[in-house]
Amino acid sequence: METNRRNFFRKIGQLTCLSALVGGTAYLYAEDRIQLRGCSGNQFCKNCQKMDTCVLDPAKEQRESDQVNRAL
Fold this sequence. Notes:
The chain has 72 residues and is mainly alpha-helical. The protein has helices spanning 5-30, 57-71. The mean pLDDT is 79.
């Protein structure tokens, strides 16, 4: 395939966008702002639609605290 100026700049633009996405994701993960699995620690389970079926620890704790609050 013959490389011309248009293809060169298109490829540079694509690689720049890809690098920005990968770099941004790595930065957010390194700063502990996102988690790759499950919900992040700064979200609240109280209003989650999957609350009844979620197996993550924060959801279990929220369900237990709801049962305690209802018992009082």
